[in-house]
Predict the structure.
Amino acid sequence: MKTVCKADTQTVKAKPFVHQVGGRTSMLVITPETICKLYTKREVQFYENIPEILKAFTPQYKGLVTVKCSKEEDKLTFYAEVPGYILWNKDHQNNIDDCDALKLGLDNWSRTCEKGYRDFWADSTDHNYIMLENLVGSLRMPCILDLKLGTKQTGDDTSEKDRKLREFRSAHSTSGSLGIRLTGMHMYQSESNTYLSHNKFYGWTLDDSGLRQVLRQFFNRSHMLNVHLVARMISKLRRLRLVLSTQDKFYFFGSSLLLFYDGYIDTALHLDHSKSAHRCSDRMSKQSEHLYEHAPRDQKDGGKREAFEMEAILQSQCDAADARLIDFGRAVQKSEMKERSLGVEFEEGLLFGLDNLICILQSMVCI
């Protein structure tokens, strides 16, 4: 973590992160590249001791930041004392897209969390936050799926009351049967230019079949399954599975898996394919032309160009698609685990959930 002098900081307005889909506390966005979440000792300890092999599967850690809050006409306004190395472009703090909040159907879970934490800010005390990479900051229309991993959610720090509640929820949800549970989702629907949003309460109502349907829905683009996207996710999840089964430093109690990709599609392509080369981006045009020019001669006939153009669109959505492990507020180093058997049992449940997710995705594309 970098040491920052007070003189190197700048006060900027922090806004609720509109693409937060899960969690208990409100996440804030500082710049398009940086978000922050409430400090917990264990999460900082994880990021400061993260094994090298896990860095490609987690958000980048950027240090700590102090956040203060003021009430203006019963509205909470947040300000962050941000280090200069975060504000490498002085215009970034004023360049956060307010239009995100206006996207139809976008359920701002961050605002929901904020309402539940109003008493937390009642005394105007400053609080430490953890700065993290905004994984979807570069996406035009982020599609995000948050899945809680593991068959059990109780750790060594869980109270008896909380343990019973978590065990009940696991036993009566897909956590117990599949080792994965939906805790939040934003999916952009290009046909209607709206978002479909689900929260954790919806996730608790899903049975195995319902969760499978939601997963398929998440990867459906323009009424067809994007097999390239699913295949890319499977590849990333397999690598993550290997890393989690071999790393020997942490148990990830309460961690989640975040799947995301850019749902933006140039709708003009669906209206008039004959003019698509002029309407889509240069990258998409080049991709479709390359696929078409290198296709067998018999496939070029009979109006096949449209299929190649759609293929290029679907492949382009894979560029920013990724899967990351998140939420380490309850992660514990294995060497410090009080009940080793509890950690081993949880680890098996986490890998069970990851295996089931991979199998479900494989069944979609018959890999």
About this structure: The radius of gyration is 22 Å. DSSP finds 13 helices and 15 strands in the chain.
